[in-house]
Design brief:
180 residues; alpha+beta; Immunoglobulin-like; 4-stranded antiparallel beta sheet; 3-stranded antiparallel beta sheet; 4 helices; elongated
Length: 180
């Protein structure tokens, strides 16, 4: 957005809100302006800033250690295997990371308090103890290069409820059955 705002100002466009995307920017300036030296200069400066601020540090780190730095490419979210977050459904973390990862741990939380110890399991099965509570998951990513851990918190959108229909949970060995 900043690049196209700068370009719109350079070309005397009065309302820069319309130039937050490349297509809107190019639709509103003449062909000769698109190819001007000043336009190219702004593009090159932006590319240089991106190179200096984001790409160069990663490249240097990779060359030095032989490991690609860890990045969270998309903020993790908690989703449910059902339409509603109800007792008996499974919550799971959806995430996208890149780089050399050593480990990931998941700390499921109920109203900000840990539910058991951290684990490698990105899934939490909702129980009666979760009803009326906010469930979240604190995810800790450890990079293989030994850099500081990256910690993110993913939350479910609503408060946990009981299902409208009766449910029955049976232990794997069939010894115990519970219902709501």
């Amino acid at each position: 957005g900043t690049l196209f705002k700068e370009l719109a100002e350079l070309h005397g466009q009065p309302d820069t809100r319309n130039y937050q995307t490349p297509q809107r920017y190019y639709d509103n300036i003449s062909r000769s302006q698109r190819q001007s030296d000043a336009t190219l200069d702004i593009f090159l400066k932006t590319i240089s800033r991106t190179w200096r601020d984001q790409l160069l540090p990663d490249l240097l780190s990779t060359l030095r250690t032989g490991l690609v730095p860890l990045h969270v490419e998309k903020e993790p979210v908690v989703e449910s295997d059902r339409d509603d977050e109800v007792v008996g459904s499974n919550l799971y973390v959806v995430e996208r990371i890149s780089g050399d990862l050593d480990s990931i741990t998941y700390q499921w939380m109920r109203n900000g308090e840990p539910i058991g110890p951290p684990s490698k399991n990105p899934v939490h099965r909702l129980t009666r103890s979760d009803v009326g509570k906010e469930i979240s998951c604190e995810i800790t990513y450890l990079a293989r290069d030994g850099s500081e851990p990256i910690v993110r918190v993913a939350r479910i959108g609503g408060i946990i409820t009981t299902p409208n229909l009766a449910t029955i949970e049976i232990d794997e060995d069939g010894s115990t059955a519970r219902g709501i």
